[in-house]
């Protein structure tokens, strides 16, 4: 079963991205549990698959306005879907890279995939509840969802 | 485990193998050409020599005429004149040249060529030429003899004789030299004809050889191509059809040019041929497996290492991989990757043949079995923890726990959805969820569900710990979410166990009924643990329930306590909500009584009390008038000094504030969230939780909570719910 430290690895690196690249840190709001039949996705989602000691997925999902504002703060003038996907993919990539490093070599972390709109292929762990960690940046709300079950 | 060598080992070929015939043919072709060339050179050389002979034979014709002319001019010119001298010199030259050349034609030898250089002539071998030379010699010898005196210029008669002989043999000599020329020309022409013939035959043979090579080898090549194409097609069909992934790996660990089609699906990649294997592997397996695989492959290519010995070390024998699915989403698979050495005819290791199988189904089945086994073990342990609880009460607990935990999650979710300003924090969330988890802990303790009580206690501990932080942010609550998940998981596990046991019992009951001939369904009406029972039974407030709790807590606290109760049965007239609330309150009061009120046997002994402390519960209820409940213990009572010390130690109040409070004010501190007088936290008490919960619970039902206490003697709590006046047996103070 995922422990607090492992869960924090994902949360810390998701928020670290904002501290490092978005001029203003993100705030973690109250985390809660969601079941496998619930859907928590915004306009853009970056997903990494996890396998090994745990299996499932971890994704960062954010509304389009948040991604556009983020692009603006990074000095980007293009705010197209592709650019927004780049940002969400970059956050997922940060999660993947750090998770590979910090969770140990028994984990397999997939190459992140980026999704615009409601992802059909995103399924949460059935045998366990998933953690929904709302992340607030400026006035926007995004979420980190950690859906892992024992491998 | 090498790939088996062919049954007939190919002989080592020393020549050109299958190309021997074509090499021989080409060699023959070259020999023909070389032969023709040599003959050509030889014959050409002869023809060239013959041409010199022909030229000199032609010159003999001319010399015979010049000799006669010079002889006539010498005879006609005045003696001693320049003309005579010139004619004599011409006569000498032509005579010498004619004689030397004729002699060379006859015996072979040197003469002077047209360019004045010495020329070597072979004796004339042709019969006609030879006859002409011999006939010419016969004519020339007398003439030469006659010319000698004339050439010396001493005798006019000799000159006259020479002129006569020359005139008579002139035409014959001319004809003979002409014959010689013709004969030599014919010899040369014959050689030229022979040369052409040789060239024609040689070219013909060369052409024949060429066409032989062409047609023979085109057919062989076609056959070979056909066989190769058939073999290639068969290979492609096999590689396209085989469900296992197959490919060759070279020493540079590059995938071969012809991986099987299924390999792309197994590795989730469209391009594999000629790609490096390890970087691809790194993307789909864990870093640990990747490193082990790299080392293993290195070992496999060391030919002296016995494959059988290292095969068991293959880290890819059963490996979990994460590969991109059709839409790029990560898919989990299990692959079985095996390596076989491929050697050439000289037993040198050239490749590894890699076989890849999708073993996901098998591994998943094994995993499910393992999970089931683990679950069965956990359930057995769980079963031991719940067996002592009556099924209806267990079900009631599960329902209540499930609702309570989901209420907590709903609270977290509600706050998590709210926008948060930088100054905001979540201390309020902790206060909001605390009573729920605390009540649940009490319920679990009441039923003796220790594992659950422990989880709830840990949750509670975490809340108290978080309350001590200066600022409670969302990330501090991550641990709570993890603990909540564990609590929910435990409730689900207990529910699953209860349902399973219920089904089992129902099945047994039906079997027993059927065996006894009872009507079908009759047995299902009264199962002891039937999950189908829809109405949860009313919560019970029996002395046995609380005695169990008190004894267990006393044991934990190393105390001796007896519980005496009266009138609890009258509470049955109350509604379920009231009973539930009273039970929560009583659980907390009893916990406090055991933890804070009753002393240890040693303390009691020193205080002149019996070793066994006594807690009395007295209840009186009337359906119309209401409820009164008193919980009395003969412990140390409420000690204002101890409360003050604990309050001061908590740092929440100053000495001045505490001094100003008085006894009533100090007692009121007991209802402050987080306040405790216990030195350390235990399952029974100590985290400063409970009294505030009791107070809010009672007030929520419109009741009152009051306390009476004498330090060192007793402490009694009275709860009244609406409509019922107090018993008045004791002196109570309103809190």
Please explain how this structure is put together.
The complex is a heterodimer of chains A (151) and B (735). By secondary structure, chain A is of the alpha+beta class. Chain A has helices at 4-21, 64-73, 81-102; strands at 27-28, 32-34, 44-51, 54-62, 108-109, 113-116, 130-137, 140-150. In chain A, strands 1, 2, 3, 4, 5, 6, 7 and 8 form an 8-stranded antiparallel beta sheet that branches. In chain A, strand 7 (130-137) and strand 8 (140-150) form a beta hairpin. Chain A is globular and about 45 Å long. Chain A starts with a helix and ends with a strand. Chain B folds into 4 domains: 17-231, Four Helix Bundle (Hemerythrin (Met), subunit A) (Up-down Bundle), CATH 1.20.120; 242-358, Beta-Lactamase (2-Layer Sandwich), CATH 3.30.450; 389-525, HPT domain (Four Helix Bundle (Hemerythrin (Met), subunit A)); 543-734, Heat Shock Protein 90 (2-Layer Sandwich). Chain B has 19 helices and 12 strands. Chain B has helices spanning 20-76, 82-107, 127-152, 156-241, 262-267, 277-284, 287-300, 307-310, 360-386, 391-416, 427-447, 450-467, 478-516, 543-557, 576-597, 601-606, 640-650, 655-668, 691-700; strands at residues 109-112, 118-121, 245-249, 319-324, 330-343, 349-358, 561-566, 613-622, 626-633, 704-710, 714-721, 733-734. In chain B, a hairpin with a 3-residue loop joins strand 10 (704-710) and strand 11 (714-721). The two termini of chain B are 87 Å apart. Mean pLDDT of chain B is 81; it is low at 1-13, 518-538 and 724-730. The A-B interface holds A 1-4, 7-8, 11-12, 15, 27-33, 47-52, 55, 57, 100, 105-111, 113, 119, 121-122, 128-129, 131-134, 136, 139, 141, 151 and B 283-288, 291, 320-322, 324-325, 327-332, 409, 412-413, 415-420, 422, 426, 429, 473-475, 477-482, 484-486, 488-489.
């Amino acid at each position: 079963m995922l422990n607090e430290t492992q869960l924090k690895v994902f949360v810390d690196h998701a928020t670290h991205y904002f501290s490092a690249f978005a001029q203003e840190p993100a705030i973690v709001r109250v985390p809660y549990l969601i079941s496998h039949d619930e859907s928590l996705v915004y306009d853009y989602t970056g997903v990494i698959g996890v396998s090994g000691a745990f299996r499932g997925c971890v994704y960062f999902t954010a509304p389009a306005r948040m991604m556009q504002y983020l692009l603006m703060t990074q000095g980007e003038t293009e705010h197209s879907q592709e650019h927004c996907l780049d940002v969400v993919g970059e956050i997922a990539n940060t999660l993947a890279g750090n998770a590979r490093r910090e969770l140990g070599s028994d984990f397999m972390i997939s190459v992140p995939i980026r999704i615009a709109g409601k992802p059909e292929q995103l399924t949460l762990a059935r045998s366990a509840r998933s953690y929904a960690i709302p992340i607030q940046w400026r006035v926007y709300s995004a979420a980190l969802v950690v859906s892992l079950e024992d491998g | 485990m090498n790939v088996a060598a062919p049954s007939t080992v190919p002989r080592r070929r020393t020549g050109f193998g299958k190309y021997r015939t074509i090499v021989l043919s080409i060699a023959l072709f070259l020999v023909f050409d070389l032969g023709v060339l040599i003959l050509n050179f030889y014959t050409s050389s002869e023809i060239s020599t013959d041409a010199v002979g022909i030229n000199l034979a032609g010159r003999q014709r001319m010399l015979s005429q010049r000799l006669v002319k010079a002889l006539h001019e010498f005879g006609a010119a005045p003696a001693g004149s320049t003309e005579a001298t010139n004619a004599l010199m011409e006569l000498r030259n032509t005579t010498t040249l004619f004689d030397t050349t004729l002699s060379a034609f006859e015996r072979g030898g040197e003469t002077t060529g047209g360019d004045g250089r010495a020329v070597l002539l072979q004796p004339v071998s042709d019969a006609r030429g030879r006859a002409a030379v011999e006939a010419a010699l016969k004519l020339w010898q007398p003439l030469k003899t006659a010319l000698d005196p004339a050439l010396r210029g001493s005798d006019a008669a000799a000159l006259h004789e020479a002129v006569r002989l020359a005139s008579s043999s002139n035409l014959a000599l001319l004809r003979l030299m002409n014959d010689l020329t013709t004969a030599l020309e014919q010899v040369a022409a014959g050689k030229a004809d022979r040369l052409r013939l040789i060239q024609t035959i040689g070219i013909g043979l060369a052409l024949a050889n060429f066409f032989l090579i062409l047609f023979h080898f085109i057919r062989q090549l076609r056959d070979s191509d056909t066989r190769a194409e058939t073999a290639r097609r068969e290979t492609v069909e096999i590689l396209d059809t085989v469900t296992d992934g197959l490919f060759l790996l070279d020493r540079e660990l590059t995938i071969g040019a012809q991986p099987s089609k299924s390999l792309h699906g197994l590795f989730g990649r469209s391009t594999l041929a000629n790609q490096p294997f390890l970087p691809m592997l790194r993307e789909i397996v864990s870093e640990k497996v990747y490193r082990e695989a790299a080392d293993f492959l290195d070992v496999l290519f060391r030919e002296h290492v016995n494959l059988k010995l290292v095969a068991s070390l293959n880290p890819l024998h059963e490996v979990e991989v994460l590969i991109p699915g059709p839409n790029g989403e990560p898919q989990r698979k299990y692959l079985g990757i095996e390596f076989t050495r491929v050697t050439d005819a000289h037993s040198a290791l050239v490749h590894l043949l890699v076989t890849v199988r999708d073993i996901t189904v098998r591994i998943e089945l094994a995993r499910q079995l393992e999970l089931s086994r683990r679950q069965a073990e956990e359930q057995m342990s769980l079963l031991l923890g719940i067996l002592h609880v009556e099924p209806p009460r267990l079900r009631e607990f599960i329902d209540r726990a499930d609702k309570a935990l989901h209420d907590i999650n709903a609270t977290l979710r509600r706050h998590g959805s709210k926008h948060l300003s930088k100054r905001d924090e979540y201390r309020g969330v902790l206060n909001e969820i605390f009573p729920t988890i605390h009540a649940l802990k009490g319920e679990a303790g009441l039923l003796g569900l220790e594992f659950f009580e422990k989880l709830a206690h840990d949750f509670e501990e975490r809340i108290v710990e978080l309350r001590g932080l200066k600022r409670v942010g969302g990330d501090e609550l991550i641990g709570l979410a993890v603990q909540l998940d564990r609590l929910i998981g435990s409730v689900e596990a207990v529910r699953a166990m209860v349902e399973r046991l219920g089904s089992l019992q129902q099945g047994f009951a039906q079997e027993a009924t059927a065996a006894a001939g009872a009507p079908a369904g009759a047995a299902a009406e009264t199962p002891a643990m039937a999950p189908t029972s829809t109405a949860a039974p009313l919560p019970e407030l029996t002395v046995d329930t609380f005695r169990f709790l008190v004894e267990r807590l006393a044991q934990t606290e190393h105390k001796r306590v007896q519980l005496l109760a009266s009138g609890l049965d009258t509470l049955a007239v109350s509604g379920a909500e009231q009973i539930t609330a009273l039970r929560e309150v009583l659980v907390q009061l009893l916990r406090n009584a055991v933890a804070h009120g009753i002393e240890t046997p040693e303390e009691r002994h020193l205080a002149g009390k019996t070793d066994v402390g006594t807690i009395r519960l007295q209840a009186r209820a009337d359906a119309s008038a209401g409820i009164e409940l008193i919980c009395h213990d003969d412990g140390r009572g409420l000690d204002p000094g101890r409360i003050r010390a604990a309050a001061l130690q908590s740092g929440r109040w100053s000495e001045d504030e505490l001094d100003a409070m008085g006894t009533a004010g100090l007692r009121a501190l007991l209802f402050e969230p987080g306040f405790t007088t216990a030195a350390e936290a235990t399952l029974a008490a100590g985290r400063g939780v409970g009294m505030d919960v009791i107070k809010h619970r009672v007030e929520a039902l419109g009741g009152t909570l009051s306390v009476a206490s004498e330090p060192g003697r007793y402490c009694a709590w009275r709860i009244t719910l609406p409509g019922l006046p107090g018993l008045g047996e004791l002196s109570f103070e309103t809190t």
